[in-house]
Amino acid sequence: MLTGGGNGNVHLWSLADLWNSAKGRPRKTRTLKGHTSLVSSVAFSSNGYYVLSSSFDKSVRLWQCESGRAVRRFEGHSDSVRSAVFSPSGRHILSGSSDNTLRLWELEKGREIRCLEGHSGEVYSVAFSPDGRNAISGSSDNTIRLWELASGKEIRRFNGHSGSVSSVAFSSDGRGVLSGSVDGTARLWDVATGQEIRRFEGHADCLWSVAFSPNGRHALSGGRDGTVRLWNTVTGEQTHCFQGHTEDVYSAAFSPGGRYIFSGGSDKTIRLWVMPEES
Prior knowledge:
The chain has one helix spanning 16-20, and strands at residues 2-4, 10-14, 27-32, 39-44, 50-55, 59-64, 70-75, 81-86, 92-97, 102-106, 112-116, 123-128, 134-139, 144-148, 153-158, 165-170, 176-181, 185-190, 196-201, 207-212, 218-223, 227-232, 238-243, 249-254, 260-265, 270-274. By secondary structure, it is mainly β. The mean pLDDT is 95.
């Protein structure tokens, strides 16, 4: 498991003790130090070899997971980097920044391939399509945008949120986009048409994080009300509300198999939840 925080450090955790004992707890195995400001996002590469982190220090950093060695620094943004992700192939990195741009990078050499411009506000969240050809971004200009990475051109714009779009995600089949906004809603969109398919309402305040389950049948959202909510993507119904955090939930994610849910909050805790069987 990976976590990042306000002190600029990235922490790696082992969950082995957790799975092997009913009283087991996550164990911190390594701390990656180098960022000089808040860490805004963290990610594992698909093969688990690398760790990626973005920060308000305007950089994205690549680390070797086993040794904790800093491998590469990606610099070019002129303001805080809010989000960074690996491409499905693992050969590229995409970042979004408060300088209103997305940047596509070559992992091996750290070279910037392309700067994607068009948003009129900060880019809070970015994601690759499953085939790696396209990307989506969510911004403080209240829009979600679909980009063709080969050309850097905007393909489609998703309009509807009445507040900043704080989090975006692609479905595993690439046909759907999930978004979360400070307007308090999560929304499901059709990639091909840009039309809103479904709206998920129930949070009492801003949403900071959304995620698809691996099978695409459920969506997850976390927000300022301190709750993590599980939604049926077919019906739009809320199937469960996980309560325990005492402050904002800034990150919510499914385990790779979809059996567990992780959440991180400004109450300085990471919580592990079991996916309800009825869901």
